[in-house]
Amino acid sequence: MRFSNTKEPAQVGDIVVCSSDGYWDIDRGDCFLIDRLFRGDASFTDKAGDVRVINDAGRGDDDEDVFGVYARDFNVYRPCEPSTEVTLAAKREELAKITADIMELEAKLADEKTLKVCDYARVIDPGCEPALSVGDIVVISEIDPDDDELTLGVHPVLNPKITAWVRTCGKITPTEAKAAILAQVEAQFKEVA
Q1: What is the pLDDT of residues 128-184, one digit of tens each?
Q2: What pTM, to 2 d.p., does this model score?
Q3: How far is CA 181 from CA 17, 80, 158, in A?
Q4: Residue 167: helix, strand or coil by DSSP?
């Protein structure tokens, strides 16, 4: 991070550099980070662990063991905006990390969507299977990657004795399967009533 000298009063985040030999416990050239405000004035912790308040009067607060220093004895350096080149390099690094994260998540998502034996699924294309319809909930029992026409062996959840081959299914969670089955059962009762 780059800093530039400013004549403005110190504020939190600034660096102050002592420019005076007037202090017995702070040397000329010592640097400190302004890390807090004390009653509105910038303050820092010196090498001895004492809180120092920068103000025009050079006063601290004896009741709270806070010691004062004169503002005129310290040069203030404020963080400045990084150059375009530095910003661009940081953004490229950030983009590379995000791209790697996205690739990892896409691979995980593809794996999560890939049907495996024992997964619950919803029939998308039953092919020429008369026992199943679009939307039926099934359990994958076999996968045949060599069959161009019917690639998934399935058992309908509501009738597990049937074994059928379908073209396409969409993977669903057990919770989604349960909800869909309950909805199908409810629909059957409404048709009967």
Answers
A1: 878 888 888 899 888 877 765 568 889 888 878 888 888 888 888 889 889 988 887
A2: 0.43
A3: 73, 62, 8
A4: coil
d(CA 5, CA 77): 4
Q: Which residues contact 188 (CB under 8 A, 6 or more apart)?
A: none
143 vs 116: CA distance, rounded Å: 8
Task: Tell me if 137 sits within 8 A of 176, measured CB to CB.
Answer: no
Put residue 187 in one of left, alpha, beta given phi > 0 → left and psi -120 to 50 → alpha: alpha
Structure tokens at 86: 């530095």
Q: Are 23 and 70 in contact (CB under 8 A)?
A: no
CA 131 – CA 118 distance, rounded (Å): 20
Q: Tally the C-alpha atoms within 13 A of residue 7's C-alpha that lie toward its C-beta.
A: 0
Which residue type sits at 116?
A: K
Q: What angle do CA 46, 49, 55 make, to 5 degrees?
A: 45
Residue 20 CA: distances (Å) to CA of 26, 34, 70, 74, 176 = 9, 18, 10, 7, 73
